[in-house]
Amino acid sequence: MAEIQPITMPKWGLAMEEGMLARWAVDIGTPIELGQEIMDIETSKIANVFESPVTGVLRRRVVADGDTVPVGALLGVVAAPDVSEEAVDDFVRTFLEGFVPEEAGAASGPSAETVEAGGRRIRRLKAGPDTGKPILFIHGFGADLSTWMLNQAALAEDRPVHAIDLPGHGGSEKALYDGSPAGLAAGVIDYMDAEGIESAHLVGHSLGAAIAATIALDAPSRVDGLTLVAPAGFGPEIAGDFIAGFIAESRARKLR
């Protein structure tokens, strides 16, 4: 008999405990391929498409649009067309009867904490061993360290990886003494000093990339390399409408 394969709620990031299946993108009976976008999933931090981990025919949609379920919960079932309906039903029933959600708040990885750096509080999430060349993630305007929740764990397998909330963002101190890229770069260097990081590979997104580039220009000895994602400051245009809309928005879903 052909294999019956489950599709379960993924664990995106070190702290994710549950997610909402916002929208199915495929119907029952649809053949799906490995890596195909089959649904949208939202968490308290992000909204993202979910790519199928398996190939086959979608035989069951166990969770409906808008439902929130824990990590590991059964979302759907994929099987070959020659697998009987009874076999699929048995698989779903057995899975649901045996499924035990991860206990809320269970220690499944490092958690964010606050450190003092340059006279201000900076929230950070550190993962990985203490040895190896560090990576430091720097998020963009209006974001926080959860920007990197899909990247940090994988990169932390063989080196320390730090993700921080910039001053004025997330769980860091809200007072901004200087909100320019140079001022925020100084705050990042303060964090590196507080953590004893002599140099690191800096990974920045948007404003964070401009900050990383500023550090490379002003303090090159602190930078081992740069990865700049959609960097600000590398062209003449600014998405002013987006920034204005972001500042004016107060609804969490719209902000995500």
Chain-averaged pLDDT = 90
According to CATH, the homologous superfamily of the largest domain is: Alpha/Beta hydrolase fold, catalytic domain
CATH topology of the largest domain: Rossmann fold
Count of domains? 2
- Number of extended strands: 14
If strands are numbered along the chain, what order do they take across the biggest sheet?
9-10-12-11-13-14
Put the structure in a nutshell.
The chain contains six helices and 14 strands.
List keywords for this structure.
4-stranded antiparallel sheet; elongated; 2 domains; Rossmann fold; OB fold (Dihydrolipoamide Acetyltransferase, E2P); 256 residues; 6-stranded mixed sheet; alpha+beta; single chain
Description:
The protein is of the alpha+beta class and 256 residues long. Helices cover 22% and strands 29% of the residues. It has two domains: 4-98, OB fold (Dihydrolipoamide Acetyltransferase, E2P) (Beta Barrel); 113-255, Alpha/Beta hydrolase fold, catalytic domain (Rossmann fold). The chain contains six helices and 14 strands. The chain has a six-stranded mixed beta sheet. Strand 9 (113-117) and strand 10 (120-127) form a beta hairpin. It is elongated. The two termini are 43 Å apart. The mean pLDDT is 90.
Chart the SSEs and their pairings.
Layout: E1 4-8, E2 18-24, E3 31-32, E4 37-42, E5 47-51, E6 56-61, E7 67-70, E8 74-79, H1 85-98, E9 113-117, E10 120-127, E11 135-138, H2 152-155, E12 161-164, H3 181-194, E13 200-205, H4 207-218, E14 223-229, H5 240-248, H6 252-255
Parallel strand pairs: 11-12, 11-13, 13-14
Antiparallel strand pairs: 1-8, 2-4, 2-7, 3-6, 4-5, 6-8, 9-10, 10-12
